[in-house]
Amino acid sequence: MQRIGKYTLQLDPPAYIRGSGSFAGKKEGEGPLKDYFDATHDDTTLGEESWEKAESKLQTEAVKTAIQKAHLKPADIQYIFAGDLLNQCISSTYGLRDLDIPFLGQYGACSTMAQGMGMASVFVSGGAAENAVAVTSSHFCSAERQFRFPLEYGGQRTPTAQWTATAAGAVVMGKQPGAISVREVTFGRMTDLGVSDANNMGAAMAPAAVRTLTDYFTDTGATPQDFDLILTGDLGYVGSSLLREIMRKAGWDIETNHNDCGLMIYNRKEQDVHAGGSGCGCSGSVVCGYILKQMAQGILKDVLFTATGALMSPTALQQGESIVGIAHAVHLHLET
Amino acid sequence: MQRIGKYTLQLDPPAYIRGSGSFAGKKEGEGPLKDYFDATHDDTTLGEESWEKAESKLQTEAVKTAIQKAHLKPADIQYIFAGDLLNQCISSTYGLRDLDIPFLGQYGACSTMAQGMGMASVFVSGGAAENAVAVTSSHFCSAERQFRFPLEYGGQRTPTAQWTATAAGAVVMGKQPGAISVREVTFGRMTDLGVSDANNMGAAMAPAAVRTLTDYFTDTGATPQDFDLILTGDLGYVGSSLLREIMRKAGWDIETNHNDCGLMIYNRKEQDVHAGGSGCGCSGSVVCGYILKQMAQGILKDVLFTATGALMSPTALQQGESIVGIAHAVHLHLET
Prior knowledge:
The structure is a homodimer.
Chain A: E1 2-4, E2 8-24, H1 26-29, E3 39-40, H2 51-69, E4 79-84, H3 90-96, E5 103-105, H4 112-125, E6 131-138, H5 140-147, E7 163-164, E8 167-174, E9 180-186, H6 201-220, E10 229-233, H7 236-249, E11 258-260, H8 261-264, E12 277-278, H9 280-296, E13 302-311, H10 314-318, E14 324-334
Parallel strand pairs in A: 2-3, 4-5, 4-6, 7-12, 10-11, 10-13
Antiparallel strand pairs in A: 1-2, 2-8, 2-9, 6-8, 9-14, 13-14
């Protein structure tokens, strides 16, 4: 492992993706990526007694599938990096407690998939683990009632609001060489430009994505054109437009090869999701489902996955605080 | 870095403690460790508008002091591992956002100090960082109103309840050799024996401490007698009694050299704290204040710091869930 520039880790040896799992709910199963999830659930409770328990179950499914696809058993995994949006990260705790794998809770809000993937990659590359799992989830219903309003209230959503995806994604990172590797990781700094509208997370997170992307390009000497896809998650429509504009003004053109998990998971025009998808499980399920499958088929070779998070709580906003953004970047590379 | 046994990382090269900071509130400043904090605050709001903001300020103070004592600047720190008990870890976010250091949010409940210290040590030992900070905090008032009752309600506390410490601890781990090192780290597995009383966290966490301690001893071949102090945090009186009893039955005698941060931070008989202290900031401030100072003076040479966490939320308990315990162990060694 080697530090390059101010903020980037070059993983040598790289960490390889050995398996992944991606599960989602009904609405996601009606969207454009429906064929790329391992399974979708028509019942948003997944047969559980609460939405929180349903979200936990999504994590369990994602991790078990990822480990299975890696042809491993839970005992072969040294660490699991997991986190979610719920208070005290309970989806992770209750979803993973039976696995008996050393557990390292992560909190990066919607950046959790990239944070956990980066963390697992650093542990594998540095010799701390042979295999490590990263997983995250979100659930529309558990998130709405915790962060905004009870669903029964039937509140109107603003045009800038994003739709929290009911989904989970998990990945097994390992030392044993495979088709897809993580080559570099850039963990981000917190960025706060004063946005305090919880219904406009995209605007709060875009500046953090700009920062981490420019850190990555500056550190590595790479340019946006070196990537088939610069993939943020989940800025949605408002945040993505902001990101592209600020990047262009800063001299980095990502117009042609940028996309955002929040814009990919739903059909924005037909599915009434306003500015697009969000939630840890959005980028988690898109990357661990669609993206890795596209890479495995050779359609994508180099993807700069940059997940963004809005670090805030209803309590903080009620006390007049702004929303702090963060973004972590992971370079996914298809080995030739 | 090398894996020994099933669960332990031997850090070679070790990571060294370069500086630490420890701040606390009024009640802690009236306790037996009062002279070991860098400062204590008589005003529980620290001059801020809310207890949550006060808690953030404790983290700011602890980190700035730790970096200063290490004779470093924030720009010399590559990563900051931080977490706390508040929903979405807002004490960490708002306390650290201005530092401009890549931020990796951790969630380990009251085990966060050991988790972050272990994480920072792994990153330093593995070459991912020259210096990394670990920090955590808790605040009696912000925790009570979030987890239990509004303070104004004046609810009676049960005899097994612990008192959330108003405190923060931070440490700078670095590559440059110093007097105190982290030699091994054992990250724990989740343990759930079905305890569901939020006023008896000690009982929920003790089995997790047993597991991580026995993992550590089994992996390394060390015995409890190799340590001047086996330090849990924060099991309090009930959990500590349970821990010692289970360990004795399992053939590991820790009677003479075990202590618990929750039993050390207050005078239990005179300060009306029932079963003792708790909260991330309890073990954080005790280790980063008292313990490291005792080590620097040569009074303690080998300390097995094993912080325990209760992974749960009020929502989970209301839905009938039990409290999941976790414990992470870090071997602190005074170099000769």
